[in-house]
Every structure is written in structure tokens, then in C-alpha cells.
Write a structure and sequence with these properties.
By secondary structure, this protein is α+β, with helices and mostly antiparallel strands. Helix content is 23%, strand content 20%. The strands form two sheets. A six-stranded mixed beta sheet has the order 1-2-8-7-6-5, with helices on one face. A two-stranded antiparallel ribbon has the order 3-4. It is globular, with a radius of gyration of 24 Å.
Length: 245
């Protein structure tokens, strides 16, 4: 689906007995069980961590996650020397320290209609410290000006799955994740999700469950309802047509 709409399947409260990572991992598993093929799931930087990688390791889907710029990843360990315990981690890769980067496995530059000139680099076989058994591919997306200088904060992504899509299209897939933010703002501002002051957690859960239902009912109408017409410009003529002044 194109555009800025997100069609939610489940909207539940996170209890005090679970974490946001655990809450997100379970619905992802349930969705993948009813699909014919594994989807590409998109995740914000809160989920770009070793804990979420471990929680979803057995879920048959691809994951594309944003990383915070202060994250540290590790390359593959060196070959076993035959003495002592085999190493799990290789060279450090600090996102905020370019001196720790090695040459990327893939690199390209392209022109985007909205974002202009982009440079994309990809490094393979990296992992978080606490999930060494789950290698990932690291992707850096940068917006450049005419002189080749970076104009905005870089976008760091990691991908894990079976077969990675082409690099020139994979980065744009992540832009669909921002539709979740649009939907969150929509239910707060238009559907008044946070307006009622309900007395119990059960009442809050029922009210929250209505948000996806209302969204699905409104979605078919979005293309058939025209946008509001532009208000007429205010007449700045000081003459009065009734008097001819």
C-alpha cells in the first residue's frame, strides 16, 4: 500500500509485566504464522538491539531496523588459533567513529525525486555484542549536496533475513515505517484516543481496541472523499461596490 496510511492489526496496552520488545515480538510471530511467505518488518531504533534480535530469531520474517548513531557493532571473529576459547567478536564498528569503519562491501550513489542525491553503503557480517550468533547487514544512507558533503543526519539501518533485496530499493522500504507515526498522530488528534479519562485498565483496553476498527472503516473513504476546497482569498479592495467608492 502506498501513501501515508497505516492499517493496524492490533493495538494493545503494554502491561507492567512485559517490555515493549516482548510486546512487539509476539504479534509479529502471530502475523507470520498466517502468511504464505515471510514479510519484511520495519522497526524503529528502540528495537534495533540484541534483545529484539534474540526474541525474534525464530520468527520467519526479514527485519529492517534503524539504529541509534551511538551503537557499536562487531565484525566476524578471527580464525581460531587452536588455543583457549574461540572468540565471538571481531573488530569494533562504532557508528559515531568513522576511523573504525572498514571498506564497505557495496557502495552506490543515486538520485531520488524527493531526497535528491544519496550515497548508500553496506557492510556485511556484523552483529551486536549479545547476539553474536545472528549476523546482520549494516546500511548507511546519506543525503549529499552538489559538492558531495552530507547535508542531514545519516540514516543507519540493519537488515537480517534470508535474501536481502537490492540495495537501491531496500533503503526506501524503511520509509514506510513512518506511516505508523502518522497513524499514532491521527488517532490522538482526530479519533481522540487520549481524550477519555477511563477508570480501569479494561475500559482503556476496549477503547484502544476501537482505534484499529475505526481506521479500517475510514480507509476505504479516503480516496472517495475530496479534500476541502481552498478558502476564498480575502478581498483587499477598500472600495465599496454599493456606493462606487
Amino acid at each position: 500500500m502506498q501513501g501515508t496510511w497505516a492499517l493496524p492489526l492490533l493495538h494493545e496496552r503494554i502491561t507492567s509485566f512485559e517490555t515493549p520488545l516482548e510486546k512487539a515480538a509476539l504479534p509479529l510471530k502471530l502475523v507470520c504464522e498466517v502468511l504464505d511467505q515471510g514479510p519484511i518488518s520495519l522497526w524503529d531504533s528502540e528495537y534495533g538491539c540484541a534483545s529484539f534480535i534474540q526474541l525474534t530469531a525464530d520468527t520467519p520474517c526479514d527485519k529492517l531496523m534503524r539504529l541509534r548513531s551511538n551503537r557499536v557493532l562487531y565484525g566476524p571473529p578471527p580464525d581460531y588459533c587452536g588455543r583457549g576459547r574461540p572468540r565471538k567478536h571481531g573488530q569494533k564498528f562504532k557508528l559515531s567513529d568513522q576511523s573504525t569503519w572498514w571498506l564497505p562491501e557495496e557502495k552506490m550513489e543515486l538520485e531520488d525525486e524527493k531526497l535528491s542525491h544519496l550515497r548508500i553503503r553496506c557492510w556485511g557480517k556484523l552483529h551486536f555484542y549479545n547476539s553474536a550468533a545472528h549476523p546482520m547487514e549494516l546500511i548507511l544512507v546519506e543525503r549529499l549536496d552538489e559538492t558531495g558533503q552530507r547535508t542531514h543526519r545519516p540514516l543507519w539501518l540493519v537488515w537480517t533475513g534470508e535474501t536481502r533485496p537490492a540495495l537501491d530499493t531496500l533503503w526506501s522500504v524503511y520509509l514506510r515505517r513512518f506511516c505508523v507515526d502518522h497513524w499514532d498522530r491521527f488517532i490522538k488528534q482526530r479519533l481522540h484516543w487520549c481524550l477519555p479519562h477511563l477508570g480501569t485498565a479494561e475500559q482503556t483496553a476496549v477503547w484502544s481496541a476501537l482505534m484499529p476498527l475505526m481506521t479500517w472503516q475510514l480507509w476505504p473513504l479516503k480516496s472517495s472523499c475530496p479534500r476541502p476546497s481552498t478558502p476564498m482569498a480575502k478581498n483587499t479592495d477598500s472600495s465599496d461596490p454599493r456606493t462606487g467608492g
